[in-house]
Write a structure and sequence with these properties.
- By secondary structure, this protein is mainly alpha-helical.
- The chain has three helices and two strands.
C-alpha cells in the first residue's frame, strides 16, 4: 500500500509542480548496503524455508540469480540526476548471469 500511495503522491506533485522534474526509480533485486542502505526486506525470514523457495522463484522468473550492486545503482542514479533532462521513470536491474 505504501508504494502505491507514494506513486500517487509523485503523480500529484508532477501535476502541481511542473518546474520540478520528478524521476521514479524502480530498483530490482538489490541487496542494499550497510547502515541506512541496508534493506529490511528479508528481516525475520525463516532462512531455511527461503533456501527452499528461492530456486522455485528463479525457475518462475521472479529472480534472475543476480543482485544489483549498490554502487552500480548509485552510479545510475547520479548519472540520471546530473543529465539535466526530464526522465519520468528509470528501472534499474542486474544483468542475468551468463550461463
Amino acid at each position: 500500500m505504501s508504494k502505491a500511495a507514494l506513486e500517487k503522491l509523485v503523480e500529484a506533485f508532477r501535476v502541481e509542480h511542473l518546474a520540478v522534474g520528478f524521476t521514479r526509480f524502480v530498483v530490482s533485486d538489490c541487496g542494499g548496503g550497510e547502515g541506512d542502505a541496508r534493506t529490511e526486506f528479508n528481516t525475520g525470514w525463516d532462512m531455511a524455508y527461503a533456501a527452499q523457495v528461492m530456486p522455485v522463484w528463479r525457475q518462475r522468473g521472479h529472480l534472475n540469480g543476480a543482485l544489483l550492486e549498490l554502487e552500480e545503482f548509485l552510479r545510475v542514479l547520479d548519472t540520471v540526476l546530473r543529465c539535466g533532462g526530464t526522465i519520468p521513470e528509470v528501472t534499474v536491474m542486474p544483468r542475468p548471469p551468463v550461463a
